[in-house]
Structures are given as C-alpha cells and as structure tokens.
Design goal:
single chain, 433 residues, alpha+beta, Hypothetical protein af1432, 22 helices, 9 strands
Length: 433
C-alpha cells in the first residue's frame, strides 16, 4: 500500500508531515540541493555541532507556518469584521494553506553555498538570494510540479519572499498576511525556526523561547481599533511575554553567536577566497549553474587552494583550513563611542596605515529592523501597540557591532600599538584632524 502521508523525524518539531503531492517538491532537485548548504556557514569551526543544513530548517519553517495558519484562521480566533472580510472561503482556505506550506518549504531555495556568509558582494548588482528563489520557483521543472499539485507558482513566490522582495503591486491584504507568517519581522516563522534550531545545534540556550504559547496566541488584528489600517499579525495580551522572549532570544543569538568575532572573521576569509576563486568574482545567476553549486564544491576548492600557493585564493583558503584566521584587536565599546562614534573605523584606517591594508579587516553591522511594534488585543478587546504595553520592548537595545582584525603575524605588535595610540586616534578623529 502506497503511503499518502510521509513523516520526517526532526529534533526541534519531533515529526514533520507531508502528503504525497507535497513530497514532489521535497524530492525536487532545487530542494534536495539544500541538503548540501550549511545553515550557518562556517560556524561549525567555532561551534562544532552547528553542521545543520538549510534542508531541515526549511522543513521546520513549513511546519511552523502550518501551525500559525491553523490558529489564525480558526473562526473563534477572529474578532473583527475587517479581518473576517479578507479571509477566503473554506475551499480557498485549503488552497492557501497548501500554497503557504510550499512557500515556507521553498523560501531558501536561492541561498548560495555557505548561506549568508558567501552572499555579500558575490552576486551581480540587483541580485540576492530572494531573487534567485523567485527564479527557481518559476523555473520549468518547478512549474511542472506546481501544475501537478494545482497551485500557482506566482502565489508560492509571493509568499516565499514577501512584498519587499517580490516587487509586485498586486500584493493583496491576504497575501501580505500570509507572507508575514514566513518573513515577518515580529512573528515570522523563518526566524522562529532558525533561533530554535541554531540554538539547539550550536549547544547554546540563548535562542530558546516558548514558541508553543506564542503561536497559540497569534491573531490577525487591525493595526488601529477602528480597522482603518490594513490588518497585520498581532497577538493576544496573554502571549506578550512570549513575544518579548522571542525578540530577546534573537538579540542574544545575534550578539553571542551570529556576530561572534571568530565566526565573522571566517565569513570574511571565505568571502575573500571566493572573490579570487570565482570567475569574475561573482556567483552565476543562471538557474542551472546555481543548482549545480553547493558547499561541497567550495570546500574542495578550499582544500586544494590551501595546499598550493600558486592557486587563486591561497592565503584566504589556508587561513580557513589551518585555522590561522585574523585576530580581533578592537571592538566597539560605549566609553569610546561616547567620545567618537566612528572610533572603530578610525582604528581600522590607522591600522591599515601602520600594518598595510592586506593585514587588516573591518566588520560592522547595525540592526535596522527590530519588529517590536505590533498590535496586541487586550482582555477587554482593545487593540493597542505592543510598545504601549511592554516596557521591555520600549527599552530594547539594538544589535550593533564593530570589529577590527589584524594578521596574526602582527598581533603582538598591533596590541602594543593600539595601547599606545588609541586615545590619540579617538581624539584626532573627533577633532577632524
């Protein structure tokens, strides 16, 4: 007897289930490629357990998206006519549930080898992994699958990347809500799964939060009480602490894991290697070329280059393979920033002057989107901003890092140089000299 429902064991969600039609997407070449794309790039060089792949993360996103959909479309969880009016009929509800599940499953198809570590600066202008994802969803092989399972590729692509990346003016309120389930800043299940999964595999506790309670209290709510503004994903007041915990988990995972200085310098060395090794310094955007390329090809090239100083990218490759990465000599701190907000960049520029540009690296990041403002329905049915109800969210810190790295050959000399010159660098730059 042929099985209609297929179960996949998962360390985060226990069982993930797909029907036979959905398995056609799972078994497709674009999705199977994700078995060979590390979720966290080279992070396993620092956290040995972080060897998980985009494949299982995408399954987890599909599982969580299904749970959210079932909660927010439950009739007893819909409180306002303005929301009820945008929810489709029962037949269409089943169609959109399938579309949402497949969009969640496919949301990462466009990732390059080693995920985000290799994306910055390595795609031609106008390209990113979201655009590649849309192209793959619309590719001929995938179109045949969508036709077989009777859903539209445009609907899948829209929900997979959201209105900011799909660039289609025909994004309706319902499609916007569904894409927010996957990609939203506040309650996107992409974020929920990667925090839980990355925390588990890295062996840290920072990414844990009560996602069961959070999902059970999610609701579609108008952003204002009279419903005059488009609906959005919000939460019942009873789930507010779980929402705070999600956002705190994200903050701590960023500062403790994703932006760990050693993890970041490995990303920089990998990027430097790929710029030299790739033809013209860019990944191909032709879909067939993209699908042929994964972490295995890059790792093979890294090992070859690390053993032959005549090959392109030799120095960066050997630093990764031999763990001879550049060392941190300066990171941002409140005391220095108070005197000069650009102190890290000033230290980097002076380090380049002192030790040579080839011997210093600079890494900076500022969080631009926090997701702290979302609608909350209170016990007496008022709809308020989360910032009105949560002092925690009002005082939430932003993620901001600045790192200056130096060639390990100059580390002792650089530490001494920094000690002798930091005050002068701060004051000279502050005074504009």
């Amino acid at each position: 007897m042929v099985k209609r429902i297929h179960e996949i064991r998962d360390p985060i969600h226990n069982f993930i289930r797909l029907d036979s039609n959905e398995r056609k997407v799972l078994d497709s070449r674009p999705f199977q490629r994700l078995r060979y794309i590390h979720q966290l790039g080279l992070t396993y060089l620092l956290y040995p357990g972080a060897t998980h792949r985009r494949f299982e993360h995408s399954l987890g996103v599909m599982e969580l998206a299904s749970r959210v959909y079932d909660i927010i479309t439950e009739p007893t969880n819909i409180f306002h006519d303005s929301v009820r009016d945008i929810i489709p009929s029962d037949y269409d509800l089943q169609y959109w549930r399938r579309v949402l599940r497949m969009a969640a499953l496919c949301h990462d198809l466009g990732h390059l080898p080693f995920s985000h570590a290799a994306e910055i600066e390595l795609l031609p202008e106008g390209w990113d992994h979201e655009r590649l994802t849309v192209e793959i969803i619309h590719s001929e092989n995938m179109e045949n699958i969508w036709s077989d399972i009777k859903i539209k590729s445009d609907d899948v692509a829209k929900l997979a990347v959201g209105p900011k990346k799909f660039k289609d003016p025909k994004f309706g309120e319902w499609e916007t809500i569904l894409s927010e389930i996957i990609t939203g800043n506040s309650f996107g299940v992409d974020r929920m799964d990667y925090l839980l999964r990355d925390s588990y595999h890295a062996g840290v506790a920072y990414g844990k939060f009560d996602h069961y309670r959070l999902i059970d209290t999610l609701r579609i709510l108008p952003k204002t009480e009279n419903g005059s503004v488009e609906p959005a994903l919000g939460i019942e007041e009873g789930g507010l602490h779980s929402a705070e915990a999600l956002l705190l988990a994200r903050y701590f995972m960023y500062i403790q894991l994703y932006f760990h200085s050693v993890r970041r310098i490995y990303d920089i060395h990998l990027r430097d290697f790929l710029k030299e090794w790739l033809p013209d310094g860019y990944f191909h955007t032709a879909i067939q070329d993209h699908l042929r390329f994964n972490d295995n090809e890059v790792l093979t090239a890294l090992f070859e280059a690390a053993e032959n100083d005549k090959l392109m990218g030799y120095d960066s490759a050997r630093r990764i393979i031999n763990r001879d990465h550049f060392k941190l000599i300066y990171e941002r701190n409140p005391r220095d920033i108070e005197k000069n907000p650009d102190v890290a960049k000033a230290v980097f520029q002076e380090a380049c002057n002192q030790f040579g540009e080839q011997n210093a690296r600079f890494d900076t990041y500022r969080q631009t989107s926090q997701g702290h403002d979302f609608p909350v329905i209170t016990g007496d049915k008022q709809i308020l901003s989360s910032l009105e109800l949560s002092d925690t969210l009002k005082m939430f810190p932003i993620v901001a890092v600045d790192y200056v790295f130096i060639n390990p050959e100059f580390r002792k000399e650089a530490e001494k140089w920094k000690e002798q010159n930091l005050k002068k660098i701060i004051m000279l730059k502050k005074e504009g000299k």
